[in-house]
Amino acid sequence: MSCKVLHICLSSGWGGLEMYPSRIIPELARQGWQSHGLALVGSRVAESFRLAGVEPLELLSKGRALLSVGRILGYLKAQGIGVVHCHKSSDLRLGALLVSLRPSLRLFFTDHMGVTRPKKDPYHRWAYGRVTRLFSISEATRQRNLAAFPLPPERIRRLYLGIDPAPYAPRLDDQERAALSQELGVPEGAVAIGLPGRLTPGKGQDVWVEALALLAEAQPNLAWQGVLIGGLTREEGSNEAHVATLRQRIAVLGLEPRITFTGFRRDLPRLFEALDVVCVPSRNEAFGLTVIEAMAASKAVIGSDSGAIPELLNNETGRLAVPEDPAAWAEALAELVADAELRRRLGQAARARVLADFTLAAHVTNLIEEYAA
Q1: pLDDT band at residue 218, thresholds of 50, 70 and 90?
Q2: Which residues fall in a coiled-coil region (predicted)?
Q3: What's the burial of 253, exposed, middle or buried (CB within 10 Å: 0-12/13-18/19+)?
């Protein structure tokens, strides 16, 4: 078979799901596979394909996708593409139709979100019945998928996401790191406690703020600075009402001098160099990409004891805390803020775990095995 794949992502949004195809395209190319893309005109997904070196086939709207089946089949034939990979459940109807009309195609679907309800009605039996392999990005989501999807267990595979660890290795010298800390509002000698991610209710920033208030009250002599990393507007993927609520609560708690809002940043690997502790208090992560990014940067990480995060972190590589319990987060923070050697030890073990289990190269190797099976 030809080593060519068409990634379908007809989304106008921008998050981990939408970023995934362009993240793996360079590694696919390195391992001998040529990628093509199908996206909406003017979407950030289409832009990301171009930045990854792929000129996408574009559609005006999701609603017109099924009307474009003939055009897409012609494109697949002309390009010699035998593999189709969908990344959004609503795109599966298009993928399933393509396979129904051309049975030689192999159809793959990655469940990036984690299904929340059964999908065993006649439509879903037809659509998922055309899927060669469904990828679950964690064991937590795989267990839900086994119960929800009309597929036998052997067609549902856990395939952990991965990252390129190289960009997360330290690059700044002491002077550059000090300047970055100053830019983030971290006083000299203070422990920087970061929380990266979209500012939305499900990401747990509210619990983190309450935990910092408890930490300040219980350990008044500890020097620390909270750093919230993420866009502040809807255009940057955040919930503006949630941002306003966070600011108001921080003011009420008297924490304004001790919590910095960085706004949207593209330099997260470098920001990690200015952080000492990274928190991921998300209530239900399907995987936890931010967790392994922080681990790759050799940071001490505290993650929620829920969703897939316990598959990434254990007591040797970080700490877990109940997602809705500020007191548990304050306790974990107090331990790490007070012990620099513990932070160093956890960070080293965390990076070693990423290098062993969560690299992009290994992820794509496993993906290609499925494409070519």
Answers
A1: very high
A2: none
A3: middle
Place of tokens 């609520």: 245
Question: What span, in angstroms and rounded, lies between the C-alpha atoms of 99 and 63?
Answer: 19
In the block, tokens 């408890």 appear at: 214
Amino acid at 329: W
120, 150 in Cβ contact below 8 A? yes
Rounded to whole angstroms, the Cα distance separating 59 from 98 reads 15
Q: Would you tell me how many other CB atoms lie within 10 Å of the CB of residue 329?
A: 27
pLDDT by residue (tens digit) across 127-154? 999 999 999 999 999 999 999 999 999 9
Q: What is the CA radius of gyration of the chain?
A: 22
pTM of the model: 0.91
Which ranges of 195-277 does DSSP label H, i.e. alpha helix?
A: 205-218, 240-252, 268-271
Check: CB of residue 193 under 8 Å from CB of residue 338.
no
| pLDDT over 70 (residue 29) | yes
**What's the confidence (pLDDT) of residue 76?**
97
Per-residue pLDDT of 162-212, as tens digits, reads 999 999 999 999 999 999 999 999 999 999 999 999 899 999 999 999 999
**Cβ–Cβ < 8 Å for 271, 184:** yes
Secondary-structure percent of the chain, ordered helix, strand, coil, rounded to 5: 50, 15, 35
Closest by CA position to 42, among listed 25, 61, 29, 27: 61
Query: Under 8 Å CB-to-CB from 244, ≥6 apart: which residues?
Result: none
| Residue matched to tokens 């000090």 | 178
> pLDDT band at residue 1, thresholds of 50, 70 and 90?
low
CB atoms within 10 A of CB 118: 12
- Please say if the pLDDT value at position 113 is more than 90: no
Which residue segments constitute the domains of the chain, with CATH numbers given? 4-160+360-372 (3.40.50.2000), 166-357 (3.40.50.2000)
